[in-house]
Write a structure and sequence with these properties.
128 residues, alpha+beta, Pantoate--beta-alanine Ligase, Chain: A,domain 2, four-stranded antiparallel beta sheet, two-stranded antiparallel sheet, 3 helices
Length: 128
């Protein structure tokens, strides 16, 4: 373990499993709170999806991230005002965190029954 990682790990008074789930939550909160409100339309959706992915994957412990934005909320471009702001119900995210031998998969999906963009842990595995 590198010196910086060892120093950071010493600050966590929890298991590696708990820390991996914590890291997943931090990343999901970052995606939601930094990008909701961004202007988006059909011409920029792909760029915004890739930008979110690239901004998250550089953070510690991120093994993989996939972002999809539901384009059904877009309206046809008819004038300069024909765009929408990104909302939580448009985000579909899958994030994989790995710390040591623990892999956590976290997801964000709009739940129609809850009427809420739910962030949740969908899988936790010990890779040993």
């Amino acid at each position: 373990m590198k010196e910086r990682e060892h120093k950071a790990a010493d600050m966590f008074k929890c298991t590696v499993r708990e820390r991996a789930m914590f890291e997943a939550g931090i990343k999901m909160g970052t995606i939601y709170h930094q990008f909701v409100g961004m202007p988006v339309d059909q011409t920029s959706v792909d760029i915004l999806e890739r930008s979110i992915e690239k901004s998250v994957v550089v953070q510690p412990y991120v093994e993989d991230v996939e972002v999809h934005i539901d384009g059904s909320h877009f309206r046809p471009k008819t004038d300069e005002y024909s765009y929408v702001s990104l909302t939580g119900n448009m985000l579909d995210v899958r994030l994989v965190i790995r710390i040591e031998n623990i892999r956590v998969v976290a997801e964000m999906r709009y739940d129609k029954d809850l009427k809420y963009p739910l962030m949740y842990i969908s899988d936790v595995r010990d890779l040993d």
